[in-house]
């Protein structure tokens, strides 16, 4: 179990800046997700930590020590690739025992370890199968077991769930959490799915265009995004333009007092209020909040949730969603209210 | 109209009778000359216009196996040279194929096209220059010189084959082995080598056969002192001793065939024949 620190890491491929001075602190034993759209540099970051790539600039620390001069095979990290990459000419057991064999562990010992790991990933009795004889989900389990066999201090997972069927994902999520907790590792995984990131990780680093936009818990990022990119990546949001006057935010004639619903960094540039759809209450009045008249122009049932589209008097459109409770009143006027604490301000 | 035509063509292709007819005719066309050779090897006199030889004899075969003919010695020398060439060519082609198949570097395109040059450029032109240098270096007229010169027409094939093999294999699986703690030798022996085995097999067989049937390069570089099997066979064909030439030809074919089959038997184990390793 080691703390990982990325300090000012930059990486270029043929003059394309893939990572631009990235800083990231992962505490020992934490499970952190690198989240972002494809091409944002998250897999490159993972490969840099594993050592398969070298940074052009900056430093990578495991514990307090720089690992830049430590060879990939000597780092205490293991990377599990997205497409499992089991060795096709070896049985499942030999695959799992491979890392131990490379370290000169005796045959009896490494085979015993492989068997116990197969049990841990719920595949007892599969030791003599070849990779082409097992399913995708089973391959994923074997590749996890193979990585765990060498007792890594840092486990790196590249899109661990993206190749799996929907119904297999939950099993695998639980397995990853279980293994992470059982094995005293610092785990970093890459994903482009924000739900997956929130379900699995302690902290999320959301990346875009080679930069870490925000780093924090899923809840924090969802509720307090630093910018529109982050807000949009985590789900739908309503944006209302306005202006700051005497410590309050105004749009049209509505006034919202500014307390602490903003990021200190862009305090002086605030010009937009962000409201998540589920924070809009329909046909109720709140005291410490805003109340608006609006007309329902669309209602969609999406299973357990209803999505609405509203039109305000000034023509501005808002989206809201409710659970179960139905306001089946198309084209009728109703009252929308949002508590002050559920409004988040940002600079667009 | 064109669709109907293509349907017609598909029908013709799917016609099993026609397909079988074509297949057997091709086999027949290839085997008939060999049969003819086999008959010749047992003939003493076979004048025109007889369908079969007037007299049969085992003289030619007897002569072949007589140590004084030097045929068996030449055959074993040929095997030795071709095996050495195969070994050297593979030692060069595996790293070269890996570099060309997996990595990007300056001048890669030029090297890629130059690799085939020895096959495209007439060997006579290339070898003349090499010959002069080999004489200076004292390599001409010696087995080692012949082995080295055989690398010229063989390496292009083995590099090309192995480049494609590595390109298909990719380097991710080696990266995976690396993060699991395998150093470069371990990666090569435990991962790469087993996975490219069938590619090495094809490349090796190709090199062996091309080297085994070299006449001109051996003739030039060996200066008559390195007597390989083709060195005996070719003059026989020229002088018109047909029964003897037939014997040598058959031995030639059988030797190459035997080598290929034995090598395949040794290296193609059960796992390799499985579909996932068809690189």
Automatic annotation (TrEMBL), chain A:
Q: Name one GO molecular function term.
A: ATP binding
Signal peptide region: none
Question: Where is the ABC transporter domain positioned along the sequence?
Answer: 4-234
- EC number(s) reported in the record: 7.6.2.9
Got a GO cellular component term for this one?
A: ATP-binding cassette (ABC) transporter complex
Task: Report keywords, A-Z.
Answer: ATP-binding, Cell membrane, Ion transport, Iron, Iron transport, Membrane, Nucleotide-binding, Transport
Per its UniProt record, what InterPro entries does this chain match? AAA+_ATPase (IPR003593), ABC_SmlMolc_Importer (IPR050093), ABC_transporter-like_ATP-bd (IPR003439), ABC_transporter-like_CS (IPR017871), ABC_transpr_FbpC (IPR015853), Mo/tungstate-bd_C_term_dom (IPR008995), P-loop_NTPase (IPR027417), Transp-assoc_OB_typ2 (IPR013611)
SUPFAM superfamilies membership:
MOP-like, P-loop containing nucleoside triphosphate hydrolases
Please report the name of this protein according to its UniProt entry: ABC-type quaternary amine transporter
- Source species, please? Halanaerobium polyolivorans
From TrEMBL, chain B:
- According to the entry, every stretch annotated as the ABC transmembrane type-1 domain falls at 75-263
What is its subcellular localisation? Cell inner membrane; Cell membrane
Q: What is its main location?
A: membrane
Example GO BP = transmembrane transport
Matching entries from PROSITE patterns are given as: ABC_TM1 (PS50928)
One GO cellular component assignment for this chain's record is:
plasma membrane
Q: What are the entry keywords?
A: Cell inner membrane, Cell membrane, Membrane, Transmembrane, Transmembrane helix, Transport
Q: What is this protein called?
A: ABC transporter permease subunit
Q: Which organism is it from?
A: Halanaerobium polyolivorans
